[in-house]
Design brief:
Blueprint (H helix, E strand, L loop, with lengths): L12 E3 L2 E3 L6 E5 L6 E6 L3 H16 L1 H4 L2 H17 L1 H12 L3 H21 L7 E2 L5 E9 L2 E5 L5 H14 L3 E5 L6 H12 L7 E3 L4 H10 L3 E7 L2 H14 L3 E4 L5 E4 L5 H13 L11 E5 L3 H13 L18 H11 L7 E4 L16 E3 L7 H4 L6 E7 L2 H8 L7 E5 L3 H10 L4 E4 L19 E2 L6 H5 L1 E9 L2
Parallel strand pairs: 7-8, 7-10, 8-9, 10-11, 12-13, 12-17, 13-16, 15-16, 17-18
Antiparallel strand pairs: 1-2, 3-4, 5-6, 6-20, 11-19, 14-15
Helix pairs in contact: 1-8, 3-5, 3-7, 4-5, 5-6, 10-11
Bound molecules: nicotinamide-adenine-dinucleotide.
Length: about 475
């Protein structure tokens, strides 16, 4: 077994500030994607554990947690951010071992998690209502109140970042959270819960129940006492979550991924663009909801860009996560199977470049050679579907209208980028692209915890990150006082 820096027992659930075995007594394997070896066991939480977690969250709201001021909540989040940074090596090792991401990418995720704690810690006491001019004899104002118990279902690709943006905003606004991490990657969620307790978070304000989606996840979405659901993951599961939320009439935030375009015009600075064009597709082995996985290029520079991308993608190094190369393994054998299935659709002439997998990779690891695909019609499934692997697609366009048509021509709309020196064109595309975020001559704005994030279309709805998330995690109450 790999030596994991575990200071808690991952085979337990964390409810009401206590570690205990899951009610059903069962556990699930933690498989290292780099080797295929089992490296730990996590709890297989079930409906009983979810019920207990919601009881604990309700008790926290009725007790110490509910009585805290916004400034006190903020102070705990600041302290938590410090603890995250102090434990940065351990958290990065856990994430790299669990998800398979190269260590330096896991370290970036630790920094992002700390930044979310700082950002939402600072924001906690700055969220205000307003007074509204109204009829004579009235004073009208609004209050932003926590929903109560919030449910958080997260995927395996960026556990720490998604915990930061979702739990950070929910705690800052005074909700009590029940977190169901993905069965493929739970370790940092459990570590975070322990650090939160060390930071002084009262028992029950954050509860973590690992388990299967169809068991623990479905139980959390079915519970009428959960007053807000935040889900990140696949479209198929997102639909189920929204249907479950509808049964209980609760608001739901859905973040469901995409097939985000990077639109490159002939006047773009290709030297500047190239690293972004590559990295936005292969970061985290392409398992990124906001991956810039469709490169749309003006036909006049198609061949030049194809050659440069081919050279860059062929040179990418693939290695086990802890060897810290450019690309690690995919999270699971299942995910590798999905990506292999997509690649099998490509004809030989559509594979423009492929990196070589080095000799000596562990046999049980889920490695995929980074690949550049081209000669694809924009409606080809490889150009439409979220592949979630280290696969870039290159599609030519003729002019601005054609670029916008192809860019907007999927069911998704999460993010988009525009590479052009023409300021007017940048502004026109920023308005017309279907996306929740548009980047002009950059991609991703280095994560930007301050920047509202979310999609349109099948990429989902609702916004996380930034101040905007604080609105989502509160219910607005209008108070109208008639005093004559
Ligand atoms: P998924 O949607 O099944 O899993 C995401 C989370 O939902 C996990 O915590 C899972 O346990 C939970 N879940 C599953 N079924 C549930 C249910 N019925 N009720 C409540 N919760 C449930 O995603 P996946 O199967 O791990 O990945 C499949 C595909 O989803 C990937 O190939 C990728 O395209 C996409 N994906 C997108 C993102 C993203 O960030 N947008 C993240 C992961 C996966």
């Amino acid at each position: 077994m790999t030596d994991l820096p575990l200071w808690f027992d991952p085979s337990q659930v964390f409810i009401s500030g206590q570690w205990r075995a899951p009610a059903g007594g069962d556990t699930l394997p933690v498989v290292d994607p780099s080797t295929g070896a089992e490296i730990a066991r996590i709890a297989r939480g079930t409906e009983t554990d979810i019920t207990d977690a919601i009881d604990a969250a309700e008790a926290a709201l009725a007790g110490d947690w509910g009585a805290m001021t916004a400034a006190e909540r903020g102070r705990i989040l600041f302290k938590l951010g410090d603890l995250v940074l102090q434990n940065s090596d351990a958290l990065a090792t856990l994430e790299a071992s669990d998800v398979g991401k190269p260590l330096k990418q896991a370290k970036n995720d630790v920094i992002a998690l700390a930044r979310y704690c700082e950002f939402y810690g600072g924001a906690a006491d700055k969220l205000t209502g307003e007074t509204i001019p109204f009829n004579a004899g009235f004073t009208v104002y609004t209050l932003r109140e926590p929903h109560g118990v919030t449910g958080h279902i997260i995927p395996w690709n960026y556990p720490m970042q998604i915990i930061g943006r979702s739990i950070g905003a929910a705690l800052a606004t005074g909700n009590a959270c029940v977190l169901k991490p993905a069965e493929e990657a739970c370790l940092t969620a459990l570590a975070f819960a322990d650090l939160a307790q060390q930071a002084g978070l009262p028992a029950g304000a954050l509860n973590v129940v690992p388990g299967l989606g169809v068991e623990a996840g479905a139980a959390l979405t079915a519970e009428p006492r959960v007053r807000h659901l935040s889900f990140t993951g696949s479209v198929a599961t997102g639909k189920k979550v929204q249907i479950a939320a509808a049964e209980n009439i609760v608001p739901v935030t859905l973040e469901l991924g995409g097939k985000s375009p990077q639109v490159v015009f002939e006047d773009a600075d290709l030297d500047k663009a190239l690293p972004f064009l590559v990295n936005a597709g292969i970061q985290n082995a392409g398992q990124t909801c906001s991956a810039g996985s469709r490169i749309l290029v003006q036909r006049s520079i198609h061949d030049e860009l194809a050659a440069r991308l081919a050279e860059a993608i062929s040179a990418l190094k693939v290695a086990p996560a802890m060897d810290d190369a450019d690309v690690g393994p995919l999270v699971s054998a299942r995910q590798k199977g999905i990506v292999d299935g997509f690649l099998a659709q490509a004809t030989p002439d559509q594979i423009l470049a492929q990196a070589a997998l080095p000799d000596g990779l562990p046999e049980g690891g889920n490695y995929i050679a980074p690949t550049l695909l081209g000669h694809l019609a924009p409606d080809h499934s490889l150009a439409q579907d979220e592949i979630f692997g280290p696969v870039q697609t290159l599609i030519p366009f003729e002019d601005e209208e054609d670029a916008i048509r192809i860019a907007n021509g999927t069911k998704y709309g999460l993010v988009a980028s525009v590479w052009s020196a023409d300021g007017g064109r940048q502004m026109r595309l920023a308005k017309r692209l279907h996306a929740g975020q548009v980047f002009l001559n950059n991609y991703g704005a280095a994560g930007g915890v301050e920047l509202p994030f979310g999609g349109v279309g099948h990429s989902g709805h609702g916004r996380e990150k930034g101040f905007e998330a604080l609105y989502a995690f509160t219910a607005l109450k209008t108070v109208a006082a008639h005093h004559g």
